[in-house]
Amino acid sequence: MEASVALPIIIFLVVTALLFDFLNGLHDAANSIATVVSTRVLSPKYAVIWAAFFNTIALVFFTTSVARTIGTGIVEPSLVDTHVIFGALMGAIVWNIVTWALGIPSSSSHALIGGIAGAGIAKGGFSALVPIGFIKTGSAIVLSPLIGLALAMFLILVLSWLCRRTAPVAVDRRFRFLQIFSAAAYSLGHGGNDAQKTMGIIAALLYSQGLLEGDFHVPVWVAVLCQIAMGLGTLFGGWRIVKTMGSKITDMKQIDGFSANAAGAVTLFGATWLGIPVSTTHTITGSIIGVGAARRLSSVRWKIAANIVVAWVITIPAAGSIAALFYWVSTKFW
Predict the structure, then answer these.
(1) Measured between alpha carbons, how far is 237 from 239 in angstroms, rounded to an integer?
(2) Which entry of 40, 155, 212, 331 is 20 to 30 Å from 222 by CA?
(3) Least confident among 42-46, 246-250, 298-302, 313-317
(4) Helices (H) and strands (E) in the chain, counts
């Protein structure tokens, strides 16, 4: 492409990536606020403001290792071009809109990963995938909710034992306060892991066009814009998914909400430190199931949980198929 043609396309793709980031915040707002809203610790208005603030400032606390995985670890960097980026973004955006409209808490992260993989395969076949990165990310689909579930079960059992001689009213009052901070921690983890996926996409775009000097990295302006876009998306909420996450899976008290958010936050912090792009949706869902199952298995509405798992399974191939279609369309127009 000539530079005069490429620049408008690059600007268009950066804006499209920020749109995805906004939708990611909108779609995944439920991850950090569903528990505090459903347990009536915070009103929806104050919950989204709280979550959006910590989503936005996550840049200060984390490196961009997840962005590097997204930008170079899913599809061979040499194959990435504007068509692949466009296909990846559209696959993720379309799938996000569909699942948001249906109130299904699918993973924005894995929609994007599916989009990258689908567009990459459309261009270079299955050899376009980076096996180690794709397998590592695929493994996280299974491991992150299981880790969240296990940590949440352990935490709720320990806290329940410690509070066994405390009046229920006192327990609720204490954890009503603590739940606010566990939600903040989860929002911080969400902003730290999820916003980096869009950073990685934009950085990969700039790198493929020779606009990044030196090795692959995330420019500061890209990181700031991505964090702001995600924070704004969170401000607009995602109330259909809040209802599913906050009350349809299992009924929660303040101690349950605290345990779910704390377990999820620990899981996200660890994954971000390791540079693994995990699903915040998967993680908090596993944590919520964990607190319900720790009390009694029958308290979890397993049919709802099973429907969510089905959405997880089909997200990558669905987003990948949509991405491949948009990749093909884009090659016909520029």
Answers:
(1) 6
(2) 331
(3) 246-250
(4) 12, 0
Q: What are the Cα distances from residue 13, in Å, to 8, 81, 120, 152, 202? A: 9, 11, 16, 39, 8
Cα–Cα distance list, 26 to 103, 140, 200, 264 (Å): 12, 23, 19, 19
The whole-number pLDDT of residue 1 equals 45
* DSSP secondary structure letter of residue 84: H
φ/ψ bin of 237: left (φ > 0), alpha (ψ from -120 to 50), beta (otherwise):
left
How far is 58 from 52, CA to CA, in rounded Å? 10
Residue length of the chain: 334
Q: Residues near 225 by Cβ (< 8 Å), separated by ≥ 6?
A: 18
Range scoring the smallest mean pLDDT among 13-17, 263-267, 294-298 = 294-298
What's the CA gap between 151 and 3, in Å, rounded? 51
